[in-house]
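Weekly modeling sync, notes
Attendees: S.R. (lead), two postdocs, one rotation student

Agenda item 3: backlog of single-chain predictions. S.R. asked that every request posted to the team notebook include the full sequence so nobody has to chase files. The rotation student volunteered to paste the first one in as an example of the format we agreed on. Action items at the bottom.

Example entry:
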Amino acid sequence: MNDVAELKRYVLVHARAQGIPTARYTGVLDRVETDDGDEPGSWVGEWTREGEALERAGRIADAARCHGMARFPYVDGPARRRAAEQSTELFDRWRTGRGGIEPLEVRLDGAVVRCWTSGLSAAKPLPVLLVMGGIVTPKEQWGPVLASLRRFGMAGVVAELPGVGENTLAYDADSWRMIPAILDEIAPVADTARTYALALSFAGHLALRCAVEDPRVRGVVTAGAPITRFFVDRSWQETLPAITRDTLGHLLDVPVPALGDHLPDLALGPERLAALDIPVHYLASKRDEIIPPGELTELRAVRSLGLVENDDVHGSPSHTAETRLWAMLSVLRMRGDRSPRTALLSVLLRLARRRAT
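Predicted structure, as returned to the notebook:
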């Protein structure tokens, strides 16, 4: 079982990023007393009941979000498996009702990588925005983003890290090959030569590793991504929250005490970082308890680095509105977009930052 206090602490950034109202998530969290099973008072039970009430009210997208929170941080038994399946089923029902979001399956090394997509067209191939969350984020969490990408003239793919959600690929030093496989699959219906990655946390690490090898990735926007020191500093690893260590052990399929023997294989060394000739925009949290502060030193090897720092903890949960604006604005600037929409987002970001100070 997970530590309930940690669950409540680390789910906040995910709840806020999805726009779950404060009253809703605090109400659920106040009722949670245990992480055992799915009975009343349990993590899975309370989030599930909230989702069921929203589904009865016809609020399918909101219901899917709550079931997604019920499976947080990863599927560790029947209760969370049911929650994960329900979240995916509800999201599928929601996207079918509104249209424009389609499933995609990519096969690699005998595994299946399932994604959600939008804007794919052989008649009008668009630049690609690849969206991925971190080690605890199923694709349905970011799936709704696809509904708005056409306004920005981009096709979209929302994927999961290997081992997360419906992605059955193994998580290891070769996981970055998943991204070229996705781009190969959609090449006939998208302008994959102009691909941009909005990849948060550990997905940012994966996107940067891929960008070293695949020139189709023209820019990476990330927040709180491990780079090198996270993977090699055993002393730092021992200070990580249990929820992070347990999730990594689950994804790597190794005992938690053995993580230090396997994580160094994932490190991005200075040679690879220096080889990146694309813009990289990175949002750091000054009080990040998961990503070591030395990672910013490693990032200096990147030739074109845009760095933003928030006085916040991992994921900058107190800056979610700013982060959303900053992320999309970063992508548009990487594309050289100087449209009125880009100017508007720039103004909105300045206003959001002013309100936060």
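Discussion: group reviewed the output briefly. The longest helix spans residues 78-98.
Action items: rotation student to repeat for the remaining queue; S.R. to check formatting next week.
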